[in-house]
Amino acid sequence: MLEFLLSSDALMALLTLTFLEIILGIDNIVFISIAANKLPEHQRSKATNIGLILALVQRVILLFFVSFLVGLSEPFYNLETSWFQLHISWQALILFVGGLFLIYKSTSEIREKVSHPSHDEDQVKGKKIKSLSNALVQILIIDFIFSIDSILTAVGMTNGLHPNHNYTLVLMIIAVMISIGIMIGFANPIRKFIDTNPSVQMLGLAFLILIGFMLITEAAHLSHTEFFGNKVGAIPKGYLYFAIAFSLFVEFLNYKTTKKSSKK
């Protein structure tokens, strides 16, 4: 396992996934902070830290569950015609539905942030919280909602890296633990950076569209889908890593240019 975790593919997946987990976790931090700020001053930091720990526990549990389903690769339904062929397994079904969900979630999030940036925050602010237990229940619900796209992103980034799903599961858990640890230690600086550079979060949501599309093609590939004798191939993850790295490099150049312009 150590040899796999230290391989270039695993390290690249770990770095990319940790970055995406942090970007996806920004809204989670914001909503947890809103819920915690309704409590007395001495309970706020406690509620925030417990909320992030609950997020970690929930995501690890979901990772085990989703990883188990993704491991079910035996087809349970076969469809063959003169021009079309399909062999559906639970693995392919989870990846396909997950890909559709990521594309839907990311596009709707982008649309919402452009048209009404504070919509979700206003909803959370409107809910009454009377005690620490009430706050934790609300935080638990918020964590679960944000865990879904986080888990699907993790599956999309690591699926197919190793034939043993336990190895990729360990890699996903490490990425989630690192990202949650960074969010606990640097929640406020990260949030301030995203507030001043909202394009970074938009970029993260745009990456989810790529990952969602990759999950759909991966599902078609694992289902041995054929159209008129042509098999659907899987998209090499190197293409995704390059697209993300190139986009981040362009964003970095844009950030440096904007910073220099503001100083002048």
TrEMBL record:
Subcellular location field: Membrane
First-listed, main subcellular location of the protein, grouped into a coarse class: membrane
Pfam families: TerC
UniProt keyword terms in alphabetical order: Membrane, Transmembrane, Transmembrane helix
Record carries keyword Cell inner membrane: no
InterPro entries, sorted: Integral_membrane_TerC
Transmembrane segments: 12-36, 48-72, 84-104, 135-155, 167-187, 199-219, 239-255
Membrane topology designation: Multi-pass membrane protein
Record family assignment: Belongs to the TerC family.
Protein name per Swiss-Prot or TrEMBL: TerC family protein
Organism (species): Psychroserpens algicola
Lineage: Bacteria, Pseudomonadati, Bacteroidota, Flavobacteriia, Flavobacteriales
